[in-house]
Design goal:
With 532 residues, the chain is an all-alpha fold. It has helices spanning 17-23, 44-75, 84-162, 169-197, 206-243, 246-282, 284-291, 298-306, 316-343, 350-373, 376-423, 446-490.
C-alpha cells in the first residue's frame, strides 16, 4: 500500500476470489425467477433471494429431524440385547465422530476470530474517514464564520468611516476601490468554502460505527460462548462413552437435538450473510455511491475510492478560488492600510486594520490545512483498509464459520443417531434373584461384576447353611417322634400315667411341673419317671 506516497496499481482494490464465487451464486425470488445480484439491502426482492438461500440449511434440518424420528420409531421397540463387540463398535464410532465435530467447532472459533479482526479494521478505518470528513466540515465552517462574522463586518465598519469627506478625493476613491475589492474577494472565498462544506453536511457515519461497535461487542463473545457450549456437549458424550454412562448418553441425545437445530440454523444465517458480503465486495464503491446522500455527488466518492491521478480533485477548483480570493483581499487590504491612516489620521484605524489582516492570515492557514485534508490519499488508504479487512479477512472468517457450522450440523446429526442407537441397548443391572443364579449385566465393568458374583456366592452359602440347619432340625424332630411311638407300643393298652414309685415324689421345676406335653388330646400327661 502506497500511502503516504504515490498511487499505483497495487493500491487499487481487487475483488477476492471468494467474493467472486459467492457473487456468482444464482439469486432467485419467491417465484424462482433469477434476479440481479447487485448488493441492495434496501431492496425487498434482493432480501427475499438471500432468505431463499438461507432456507436451504433449514430444509436440511427438517430432513435430518424427520430421518431421526423414523429411526427412533424403528428402534424404540427393539429391546433385543446386543453383543459386547457391537456396542464397542458403536462407542468407537461415537468417539471418532465426536473428535471430528470438535475439530469443526475449532475451525468455527478460528473463523470467528478472523471475522472479528476484519470487522475491527473496518470500524477503525471508518473512524479515520469520519475524522477526515469532520475536520473538513469544521474547518470550512470556521473559515466561513471568520470571513462572514469577522472580516466582512469589520470591512463594513471601515466602509462607513471612509464615507466621510476628505480633501484628497483621488486617494479616497482609490481607498474605497481597494476596500470594495477586498469585500468582493471575501465573498468569493466564503462562497467557495460553502461549496466545499455543503456536500459533506449530510455525510456522517458516526451512528453506523457506534452500532457496529455495539453489535460486534455482542456477536463475538456470543459466538464464542455458543461454540464453547458445543465443545462441552461433545465432552459430555466422550465421558459417557468412556464410562459407559447411560445417563450421559441420554443427556446428549436430548441436548444434541437442540445443538443440531442450532447448527443448521446458524448455517443458514452464515450462508445468506456470506453471499450478501460477497455481493458487496464485488463492487463496494457502487454501493457507497448508491447509499450516499443526494448532496454528495458521485464523482466525489469515485475520486476518493479510486484516487486515480488522471482524475482531478473535485474540491481543488473551489479551494483555488478561495485561496486566490484571500490573496486578492490581502493585497487590497495592504493598499487600504497604506492610504487610510493618511486620510483619516484621527479615526483610530490601526486596531481595526490589524484585526482584519490577522483574520485574513487565519483564513490562509485554514485553506492550507484544507488542501491537505481533501487530498485523496488519506481517505483512499482507509478505504482500502476497510474493504480488504471486510472482503479478505472478514469474508474468509465468515466462510470458515459457514463450513464449520455445516460440518458440525452433519456430524452432530450422526452423533445423535449413533448415540440413540447405543444407549437403547445399555441395560441396568437387575436385582439378584434368590437362589443360585444371577443375571449378569453385559454393560458393567469387570470389577463391579466380580463384586456382584462374590455377593451372590456369599448369599448362596448362607442359604445352604440355613437349609442344612432346617434339615438337621427336621431329622431331630423325626427321631423324637419315633422314640415316642416306640414307648407307646411298649406300654400296650395300659393308659399312660404315673407309675408307682417307692420313693417320695420329687418336685421338678419347669413347665408342666416336669411333665412332657401331651401328644394328643386323648393322651395323659407323662411324668418324667414314666421313661425310667
Amino acid at each position: 500500500m502506497g500511502y503516504p506516497g504515490t498511487t499505483d496499481d497495487d493500491d487499487q482494490y481487487r475483488v477476492p476470489l471468494i467474493a467472486k464465487l459467492l457473487h456468482a451464486l444464482p439469486h432467485y425470488n419467491i417465484t424462482f425467477h433469477r434476479i440481479n445480484n447487485t448488493f441492495r439491502p434496501s431492496n425487498d426482492v434482493y432480501l427475499e433471494s438471500l432468505g431463499i438461500l438461507g432456507s436451504i440449511p433449514a430444509a436440511l434440518l427438517i430432513v435430518s429431524l424427520f430421518g431421526l424420528l423414523l429411526y427412533l420409531l424403528t428402534r424404540c421397540c427393539d429391546r433385543k440385547p446386543r453383543p459386547a463387540h457391537s456396542i464397542t463398535s458403536l462407542k468407537v464410532t461415537l468417539s471418532i465422530v465426536t473428535v471430528l465435530c470438535c475439530a469443526a467447532i475449532g475451525l468455527g472459533l478460528y473463523g470467528n476470530d478472523d471475522l472479528h479482526n476484519g470487522l475491527l479494521e473496518v470500524l477503525q478505518a471508518g473512524r479515520k474517514v469520519d475524522g477526515v470528513v469532520s475536520s473538513v466540515r469544521n474547518q470550512t465552517f470556521i473559515l466561513e464564520n471568520t470571513l462572514t462574522m469577522k472580516i466582512q463586518q469589520q470591512l463594513t465598519e471601515l466602509e462607513d468611516i471612509f464615507d466621510q469627506k476628505t480633501n484628497n478625493q483621488t486617494a479616497l476613491a482609490q481607498l474605497q476601490q481597494a476596500l470594495l475589492t477586498a469585500k468582493g474577494n471575501i465573498t468569493i472565498a466564503k462562497n467557495a468554502a460553502n461549496d466545499i462544506r455543503r456536500p459533506l453536511v449530510g455525510l456522517t457515519i458516526t451512528d453506523f460505527l457506534t452500532k457496529g461497535d455495539q453489535w460486534e461487542l455482542i456477536r463475538w463473545p456470543g459466538t464464542v460462548a455458543i461454540l464453547a457450549l458445543l465443545l462441552v456437549l461433545c465432552a459430555v458424550l466422550l465421558v459417557g462413552v468412556a464410562r459407559h454412562s447411560r445417563c450421559a448418553l441420554i443427556l446428549f441425545s436430548v441436548c444434541g437435538l437442540l445443538a443440531v437445530t442450532g447448527s443448521w440454523l446458524m448455517s443458514g444465517l452464515y450462508l445468506s450473510t456470506s453471499v450478501a458480503v460477497g455481493d458487496l465486495c464485488n463492487d463496494p464503491a457502487d454501493f457507497l455511491v448508491h447509499q450516499a446522500p443526494h448532496e454528495l455527488p458521485a464523482d466525489i466518492l469515485l475520486y476518493y475510492t479510486q484516487c486515480d491521478i488522471s482524475r482531478s480533485n473535485p474540491f481543488t477548483q473551489r479551494l483555488r478560488e478561495s485561496q486566490n480570493a484571500i490573496n486578492n483581499a490581502r493585497n487590497a487590504m495592504s493598499i487600504v492600510s497604506k492610504i487610510s491612516p493618511v486620510l483619516f489620521k484621527n479615526a483610530g484605524l490601526a486596531p481595526k486594520l490589524g484585526s482584519v489582516n490577522a483574520d485574513i492570515k487565519l483564513c490562509e492557514r485554514l485553506l492550507t490545512g484544507l488542501t491537505a485534508l481533501v487530498d485523496c490519499r488519506a481517505v483512499h488508504y482507509s478505504y482500502l483498509v476497510a474493504t480488504r479487512g471486510l472482503c479478505e479477512c472478514g469474508l474468509l472468517g465468515l466462510v470458515l464459520m459457514l463450513i464449520a457450522s455445516f460440518m458440525a450440523a452433519i456430524l452432530l446429526t450422526i452423533m445423535v443417531w449413533v448415540d440413540s442407537h447405543t444407549w437403547i441397548y445399555i441395560r441396568k443391572s437387575p436385582p439378584v434373584i434368590s437362589g443360585s443364579h444371577t443375571i449378569a449385566h453385559p454393560g458393567r465393568n469387570a470389577k463391579h461384576d466380580m463384586s456382584q458374583v462374590q455377593q451372590a456366592q456369599q448369599q448362596m452359602h448362607h442359604q445352604q447353611a440355613h437349609a442344612q440347619a432346617q434339615q438337621a432340625q427336621a431329622q431331630a424332630q423325626a427321631h423324637m417322634m419315633h422314640h415316642h411311638q416306640a414307648m407307646m407300643r411298649a406300654g400296650g393298652t395300659h393308659t399312660l400315667g404315673r407309675l408307682p414309685s417307692h420313693s417320695s415324689p420329687t418336685h421338678l421345676h419347669g413347665p408342666n411341673n416336669g411333665k412332657y406335653a401331651t401328644l394328643s388330646k386323648h393322651c395323659k400327661t407323662l411324668d418324667a419317671n414314666d421313661f425310667y
